[in-house]
Specification:
The protein is an alpha+beta fold. The chain contains five helices and eleven strands. It binds flavin mononucleotide. Flavin mononucleotide binds next to strand 2 and strand 4.
Length: 212
């Protein structure tokens, strides 16, 4: 008995695939860094006002809950690199839409040539548990101590323990004590663009929550 499968050659299959190309949604690219969105954080470092610097870092994230641990990946050629390596401390300052221009600027200019505090107008305040400064304008700053440095290639990964989290009390509801990061205009970075986080579409666990 005649069946389509028997008679369709590989060549014909390719032509059929091409005819349906409009419906083929996936395209393979070479391996690359495409885990987005990410924060565009301002990482601060340095032991004193003379040394204090900041650089923009998108390669950052949480890697452990208990103990709370974070990472940043930094290219060795950055001015900040030897400062972080030698001090073994840094602070991850989350950024907002109001800080977008300063965040971008700090990511395209080096502390080797500029005093980034003067140029961006951002305000350094002394750290609490680390010598690296906290950015006053940031809604949330995470003070970290480096535990290990892993050389990966273009970037070295600084694996660090969180020593302290500093929140701007402007975003803490005095009645509930809830910290609302979303009301700060928190910023995200995705494939070359900066975004202010917007529409709420659910809360942690909402998919399994029973209706009251
Ligand atoms: C959005 C954005 C993300 C960036 N992410 C990183 C990163 O994860 N690691 C890194 O080494 N450099 C990153 N950079 C580049 C540095 O911030 C930039 O080279 C900066 O000028 C280094 O400053 P410094 O020389 O004062 O340390 C990023 C830049 C931008 C604009």
């Amino acid at each position: 008995m005649f069946t389509a499968v028997d008679t369709v050659s590989e060549e014909a299959m390719f032509i059929i695939k091409c005819l349906f190309i409009d419906n083929m949604a996936k395209v393979s690219w070479r391996p690359g860094t495409m885990v987005y969105p990410l924060p565009a954080a301002l990482v601060t470092c340095g032991a004193d006002r003379e040394e204090w610097n900041m650089l923009t870092v998108a390669w950052t994230g949480t890697i452990c809950s208990d103990p709370a641990m974070c990472y940043i990946s930094v290219r060795p050629e950055r001015h900040s690199y030897p400062i972080i390596r030698d001090r073994m401390e840094f602070t991850i300052n989350l950024t907002t839409a109001d800080m977008a221009k300063a965040t971008d600027w700090a990511g395209v200019r080096s502390g080797k040539n500029y005093d980034k505090w003067k140029e961006t107008g951002l305000t350094p305040i002394p750290g609490e548990k680390v010598a690296s400064p906290t950015i006053e304008e940031s809604p949330l700053s995470i003070e970290c101590r480096v535990k290990s440095i892993v050389s990966l290639g273009s970037h070295d990964m600084f694996i660090a323990e969180v020593l302290n989290v500093r929140a701007d009390d402007k975003y803490i509801d005095p009645e509930t004590g809830r910290f609302s990061l979303e009301s700060s205009g928190i910023m995200a970075y995705s494939h070359g663009n900066y975004y202010e986080l917007g529409k709420l579409i659910g809360k942690f666990g909402f998919s399994v929550q029973k209706r009251k």
